[in-house]
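Worked problem 6 (solution included).
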Amino acid sequence: MVTPSAWHEDAYKYNEPGHDELQMAVYNWLDNREFGGLRLRDDEESPRLTRQRVVFEFPMIRAARRGRNGSAEKLVGFVDVAELFGYETDSDFDRAVLFEIKPEIRTIGGIVRQCLAYQLGFREAFPNKACKVFAVVPFKDPKLAALRSVVPCLAWNTETYELEGNRFG
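Solution. The predicted structure is:
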């Protein structure tokens, strides 16, 4: 099993210039925004989702499984930034929006694979919860339109320091 410290120890091999800064900027932008709630249907009777928290380096941990040899919890992976939502009456989250941060689109396929890995890892760790995954890249990246054609994508405006796009549409 890869431990959190092992993930960290290998991070320097893959760290992209500007990743930490963009990750922190997106986290701060989300965390500092008011969110009044969202109804999944257009009727007043449907329960309202409220944002519970924004998490920097969200761990996806699979619950222990019973088996012949027993099994401990398993770290499935980390998500750059996660926004967690729950219903007004619940204390645990029910839905998540996951953000894969890329300061530059080097390879579209690599970003698609990472977004799919987030989705699959989330399903393994939280089988009864829903998620949506977005790549987040700078709004002036020349490959942005191509990336948007194959994966949900939001653009980070490096001039206004805001996330552009609808994460609930």
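Discussion: Residues 1-5 have pLDDT under 50 and may be disordered.
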